[in-house]
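User: Predict the complex with pyridoxal-5'-phosphate.
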Amino acid sequence: MSEHEPIDSQENLVEFEHHRLSTDKPGHGRAATKGGLKGAAMSIAKKLDGAARSARVSTLPARRKAPSFKDHTLYQSMQKYRLIGDTVGLVDPFFKEHQARLGATTKMAGKTLINFGSYDYLGLNQMPEVAEAAKAAIDQYGTSVSASRVVAGERPIHRELEQGLADFYGTEDAIVFVSGHATNVSTIGTLMSAGDLILHDELVHNSALVGAKLSGAATKSFAHNNMEALQRQLLELRGEYRNVLIVVEGFYSMDGDMPDLPRLVELKNRFGAWLMVDEAHSLGVLGATGRGIAEHYGIPSREIDIWMGTLSKTLGSCGGYICGSKELIMILKFQAPGFVYSVGMPAPAAAAALAALNVLKADPARVARVKANGDLFLAEAKAAGLDTGTSIGYAVVPVIVGDGIKAIKMTERLLARGVNALPIMYPAVPMKAARLRFFITSEHTAAQIKTAVKVTKEELKIVSSLGGVFKRTPKAQQV
Ligand SMILES: Cc1ncc(COP(=O)(O)O)c(C=O)c1O
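Assistant: Here is the predicted structure with pyridoxal-5'-phosphate placed in the model:
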């Protein structure tokens, strides 16, 4: 839309307003026309380009077939992995069908299993009041809010959830997005740009990396939880960039460990950087009342510039949030493409997350239970001689088995023994550090945890003795 065209609809009005408010930044609204010599040079280059293109058009071949997706490099490489899997007798562990609400147990192929593949850390996705809140919101507002909140307007539940989250974190304001992944992509992609620097832990989630790429900022990773490495990067690079953003997670889901937050705060203050903490796996898990890593370390939450988290894990819903200063939230509300140009969170999802947050606030005993269960799992696994890497317990304990094939085989064999734990392998973790990840919840019983560790130890012994070539599991035994 040009600024001189009539503004003929509400949607155009919003687009116009957004265009006006936008910074001159690729990928965020439309860039303002650049004037001056540079602008003139660009327009001549564009014309020459156009002329060259029309010359080429006249010499184009009559017909050219688009390549088949079968020949796409990604498809080809997936086929290669499938072939290797078939050759060594593996059953695909992914996209398995569950016939129950995932919690401490699940049901697959009609069989009830002990489940360690759910992020429902406090069992809130099992609570009738959470489901009831979602149902009531459907009755009141329907299943969709139809469009971006900017144009389709607010439902009271959106702001109630945002205020609830801001209150929980002790920040001035909050904003919710329809997806946790989109929250990181949009937030980092909006705040940072060319001339800025992003320093991130090498294990941060894919969504932060995609956001960094979108932003156009220079991006560097530092070794996992290595504050000395981060300090070296800041010493070397800080002076060359306008804004610097440090991105870490409150609790890492591949390893079950956490960063040194006091040191991060000291570094960000010394070097004048922003600190963003992704609490996807630490909300409801760390801190005596589940307020996350700041509560764990006793650090005032306002010391951290950007709190990010997802509603899909502890809060039993779907979506993501940012908590922080009112200025930060205002920037995102008007500039973040994943908010401005994407549908608002469905009311039932917002209502479920709010109800879950209220249960968490009212019942911190659940937080103590998940910690006790994580401690028990870790102690049992260590006593059984399993390699739990750097895990400190809480809600995530990996069991490192070596190569990916072994990890996949372990999942298959554990399923046959009544335990669901999923494999993670390269590139999500280093090549020889493939693992099973056990996600522990407040609702697991001590007996379930002890059984899982015992079975894992027994099966790992068998799988290790097979030396990488496995007999295909008979169909009847597959789950
Ligand atoms: C650390 C982290 N951040 C962000 C996300 C994205 O959240 P969601 O799955 O709710 O979109 C995840 C998801 O697993 C995550 O682990």
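Confidence is low (pLDDT under 50) at residues 1-35.
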